[in-house]
Write a structure and sequence with these properties.
Blueprint: E1 6-12, H1 16-27, E2 33-35, E3 49-51, H2 57-63, H3 67-72, E4 81-84, E5 90-94, E6 104-106, H4 107-116, E7 123-124, E8 129-136, E9 139-144, E10 149-157, E11 175-186, H5 189-192, H6 194-200, E12 204-209, E13 212-219, E14 223-231, H7 234-238, H8 245-253, H9 261-268, E15 275-281, E16 294-296, H10 299-302, H11 310-327, H12 332-362, H13 368-374
Parallel strand pairs: 1-2, 1-10, 2-7, 4-12, 10-16
Antiparallel strand pairs: 3-6, 4-5, 8-9, 9-10, 11-14, 11-15, 12-13, 13-14
Helix pairs in contact: 1-4, 1-11, 2-11, 6-9, 11-12
Bound molecules: flavin-adenine dinucleotide.
Flavin-adenine dinucleotide is lined by residues 12-18, 35-38, 50, 128-129, 158-160, 164, 181, 227, 277, 298-300, 306, 308-312, 314.
Length: 381
């Protein structure tokens, strides 16, 4: 192998997890290269609002030396939460009084802070992994679909749910949990969709019933970003013609017949083509035997139902792996043992919680179950 193509530390995936790792290493003078499938940072709109928690995402940002930059991109007031029933009655309303521990930021803004904090050459865009293989002695070869090939001493799979690196460590594949999220956007809602804007309020709104829900966040400029949630098998969606967005949305809205109009408008009035986001998971205690020279972090390691923790966990993983390497640069295997031990127990606990949260939202006792959760009622009683 040509020595030119050898990179000591390779991170696959420029999501929040991979970039946090690259940044923490960079702060301590350790070089890494991030290979990302997308052709540029602006190739795709980056999700919506993320609440960044004191006990994971914020710790990672401090470790990355980016906490001050993070404070600058917080959307004030967006921590407000409310729960509605299907008739639009407010069952719980928690305004953002400025004392919350989980400020909301746009995912794209957060990713940009990380990208801006790295030298340009660190992220290699347009490098989609085609295959990975072991060369022995803990080294690996990565082949990209653009025809290039590299070798590395440490390969980190931060490449999300459908990781190409994971098969080096584990035979597990993500499984569909039976819940589909359908993403819609309403723009300029304060002018064009006043009733829906009022129903959503200043932050997050959960309108729920057993097996279905309409969950929306207010984003800057009056954008309402909605995840319609339905417990349905994937083939139910195969019967819908998504080439006609309005018809497809009307079809989905039929599942919400009898719900109040300001809620169903979040579906039927969508300004963009609806995007299906099937929810997949890895097993709760997903782990692997140590394989020299390779590890995983974030969704690649522990994919779970959305519970507001996934991006936070990916960032903490990145920071913790960075710290472990910095503490033990001459013995990467020791560093990986330390990192994985902590990650396995941290992510198993969060995976259990995330399944419970999905049940609180869409289970038989919804929406009261989520109200009780917010109110701190002991659910075991
Ligand atoms: C509908 C929904 C809502 C969510 N809401 C929240 C929330 O509110 N809060 C929260 O904390 N979490 C949330 N999550 C979870 C969160 O999105 C993930 O846990 C988080 O993005 C994981 O980060 P990551 O860096 O591990 O992976 P990703 O963000 O998936 O990044 C992986 C990167 O790898 C790249 N990549 C993939 N394959 C390849 C390849 N073959 N070659 C090269 N590059 C590749 C991708 O392009 C991507 O840039 C939500 C998830 C979903 C589905």
């Amino acid at each position: 192998m040509n020595q030119k193509n050898h990179t000591p530390i390779v991170i696959i995936g420029a999501g929040l997890g991979g970039l946090t790792l690259a940044r923490v290493l960079h702060v301590h003078g350790i070089k890494s290269t991030v290979y990302e499938a997308e052709i540029s940072s602006g190739a795709r709109k980056q999700g919506g609002m993320l609440d960044i928690h004191e006990y994971n995402g914020q710790l990672a940002l401090k470790e990355a030396g980016l906490f001050d930059k993070f404070l600058e991109i917080i959307n004030e007031g967006a921590q407000a939460s409310r729960i509605l029933d299907k008739n639009g009655n407010i069952l719980l309303d928690e305004p953002d009084d400025g004392t919350g521990a989980r400020p909301e930021v746009l995912r794209g803004d957060l990713r940009q802070i990380l990208l801006d904090s790295l030298p340009n050459e660190v992220v290699q865009w347009g490098h989609k992994v085609q295959s990975v293989s072991s060369l022995g002695d803990g080294r690996h070869e990565v082949v990209f679909t653009n025809g290039s090939t590299i070798t590395t001493d440490l390969l980190v799979g931060a490449d999300g749910a459908w990781s190409k690196v994971r098969p080096l460590l584990s035979e597990e594949k993500p499984k569909y949990v039976g819940t589909m999220f359908i993403e819609t956007f309403l723009f300029e809602s304060d002018i064009r969709h006043k009733a829906s804007a009022e129903a959503v309020g200043d932050g997050a709104m959960y309108a729920l019933a057993p097996g279905k829900g309409i969950v929306a966040h207010r984003e800057p400029n009056g954008t309402l970003h909605t995840y319609v949630q339905l417990n349905k098998e994937k083939d139910w969606f195969d019967t819908i013609d998504f080439s006609n967005s309005k018809k497809a949305l009307a079809h989905i809205a039929k599942e919400f017949e009898g719900w109040s109009e300001e809620l169903t408008a979040l579906i039927t009035e969508g300004d963009t083509d609806p995007v299906l986001r099937p929810i997949h998971t890895l097993p709760i205690e997903h782990k692997w035997e140590r394989v020299p020279g390779v590890t995983l972090l974030g969704d690649a390691a522990h994919l779970m139902p959305p519970s507001g923790e996934g991006a936070n966990l990916a960032m903490l993983d990145g920071a913790e792996l960075g710290k472990a390497i910095i503490a033990n640069p001459s013995n990467i295997e020791e560093a990986l043992i330390t990192f994985e031990k902590q990650m396995f127990s941290r992510s198993a606990a969060e995976a259990i919680d995330s399944e419970e949260i999905l049940d609180l939202c869409l289970g038989e006792s919804s929406p009261q179950s989520l109200v009780n959760f917010f109110n701190g009622v002991n659910l075991a009683v």
